[in-house]
Amino acid sequence: xxARLPLLAVLLSIAMVTSAEAWSYKDAAKPYAGQSITILDxxxxxxETMKTLVPEFVKETGIQVDYQLLNHFEVxxxxxADMLSGRGAYDxxxxxxxxxxxxxxxxxxxxIDDLLGNKTISNPDLDLKDVIQPxxxxxAKFKGKTYGLLDWNYNVVYWARGDVLNHPDEKAAFKKRYNxxxxxxxxxxxxxxxxxFFTRKKGEKLAGQPLxxxxxxxxxxxxxxxxxxWTLWNVFIKNSGGDVFDAEGRPTIDRPENVAGLKLWAxxxxxxxxxxxxxxxxxxxxxxxxxxxxxxxxxxxxxLGIDQPGKSKYAGKFVYAGxxxxxxxxxxxxxxxxxxxxSKHSKKAEATYLFLQWLVDKQTQKRxxxxxxxxxxxxxxxxxxxxxxxxxxxxxxxxxxxETLKNGRAKPKAPKxxxxxxxxxxxxxxxxxxxxxxxxxxxxxxxxxxxxxxxxTL
Amino acid sequence: xxxxxxxxxxxxxxxxxxxxxxxxxxxxxxxALVPFVYTIxxxxxxxxxxxxxxxxxxxxxxxxxxxARFWHSVWISTVFxxxxxxxxxxxxxxxxxxxxxxxxxxxxxxxxLFVPTxxxxxxxxxxxxxxxxxxxxxxxYNVLERFGILSDISVLASPALxxxxxxxxxxxxxxxxxxxxxFAGLSSLPMAPYRAAAVDGxxxxxxxxxxxxxxxxxxxxxxxxxxxxxxxxxxxxxxxLTAGGPGQATESLSLFxxxxxxxxxxxxxxxxxxxxxxxxxxxxxxxxxxxARRTLRAF
Lengths: 458, 299
Known about the structure:
The complex is a heterodimer of chains A (458) and B (299).
Chain A: H1 4-22, H2 25-28, E1 36-42, H3 45-61, E2 64-70, H4 72-85, E3 92-96, H5 100-105, E4 109-110, H6 113-116, H7 135-140, E5 141-142, E6 145-146, E7 150-161, H8 162-165, H9 168-178, H10 188-198, E8 205-206, E9 209-210, H11 228-237, H12 256-268, H13 283-290, E10 295-299, H14 300-306, E11 318-321, E12 335-343, H15 349-360, H16 362-371, H17 387-390, H18 395-406, H19 417-432, H20 438-452
Parallel strand pairs in A: 1-2, 1-3
Antiparallel strand pairs in A: 3-12, 4-12, 5-6, 7-10, 7-11, 7-12, 8-9
Chain B: H1 2-10, H2 16-43, E1 45-48, E2 51-55, H3 59-65, H4 68-100, H5 106-118, H6 121-132, H7 138-144, H8 162-187, H9 192-199, H10 204-232, H11 236-241, H12 253-263, H13 267-294
Antiparallel strand pairs in B: 1-2
Helix pairs in contact in B: 2-13, 3-13, 4-8, 4-10, 4-12, 5-8, 8-10, 10-13, 12-13
């Protein structure tokens, strides 16, 4: 009997492997072939690349996919309107993590746990343990249910001008002034020092050359709305030990740690271009590409579009790092894990689920990075070791993304979070522009947010 | 229409004129009246996300009228209109009078003047973002900063200046429209009264005051009314350039309504806002019409 055990094990393994090999999107999709599903996603270069691969899914499964791409604002307004109204024009809708509070409260997102457990349509090789964490769990899992697979993994990285940071004269002067070596900032305090050090007027020297225009030590997103407050919250406030809500979801806007985080952020504005209050997440990479600022915190998918020959004369001269830590070594980063959820009003949940699985499939992800020539944002741990990334000119950027993604989480599931953000982003702008102190701004914020929600999270 | 109706009745086809206008009226009812009536209906109901809930009476209106942010946005829109429209009108009239003097290359100038007005709002926003961007904008850096003006601030990022910058952009975009419309009006004025006035020895200032202004009054009233309504609804340029900031310095009424719908999903309040805006326009337009008709004899 003991001698037969290894044989049994081998046979079992072969059976399992055979069973796994037997599963295919083609077979699983047979009952749904000919169905037509409509997916709404956001338009960025990432999704545009993915769109070129979608015909491969259609060819394999026979499921027709109308993969629609709309801009950030429209994908939110149109997608939410469709789900909330019960119209059901879209089977799958891309949602950013802040949207989930409202959508879950309205009960319009279909959990996928039953689909994940359905062996007929679930790919046994999907290997969900390989999906990057805490991104996936924090965005998709809530109160024991799973609401989607991780599709897009936007993240904010530290991005600086390597040519000026590595210049020997600058390094020596920096060391003399701050008593530590000049290098890409690992902490927010270092980022502040670098910002101060490199802020120079036209005519002064930078890396041995006289400046033809003013040069700024830092540039940050500062426009009202956008992701200004998200970054302030997750990078500056959380790394100062603060938070916007307490564990029960009650607003804690004016706590001292938040004041400290806001003060540090506002202080950096002194070293930023004068137009920062109108800079959106698109303007920040443009300013970096123009070469008038030393460093920033920027969405890495936008960096991919700038650090390219022909796009910026500083292409190849940039350096990257993960989002900086706080004083006490706290590591919180701004990330935006997003997913395509299945609308509760969809009548084609299985076909949609097959498509969503295919999007995150290892093979699809590999193809994605082949087609994009190594430009993308990974959603799987295994993707980091792909040759397309390791040999890519963005290899250093991928290291930075990986570091950031370790410390980033989805936004809390708060139905009125956009209202809270709208109030706060206006107030912190006023603090940064010197019209209010940090204490005044956050005290006013606490009052206004309490008027919106006493307990803000679900 | 009266003549057509009389003639149609005379020929025994009284229904015919109505049949002719029926498609247009039906389209108008479907695209304008039905949504508006539905908006009133929504404003009187509780809205749970995008679904109609229980009867709410005037609760949405009470919430709106007690909202300081609503009144702030009304103020911003009013200031915007009060600054932009008179400037556009004054500059437009001046330009039209100059064009009417028979300037050289008029046939070349007129089409060029149309360019700002024909531009899509997104193009206008990008253009002025590039022009006014702090520290690198074409105007802000190459012109203003070189003369030491506004060198350490960006106009669109300044709470004190952002609204004026948006007014300036609106004036830039819409003055040519006013100018060309008034120029067309000036070109079509009858010559006989001017000849008679010249024979009577009237000066050009007297002719302008006593003839040009009264004759142009109907056109001027329509242009001003159109610009007032359009400027009050300003949304796209603000949304694209400042998003209502810094702080709430440029949050117009349209932007407030947009946020109430698409950011906050407060459809009851948003519907009430739409109805209140309509009432404001209705009252204002009627008052303007009566003023123009009785005092200025424009209609």
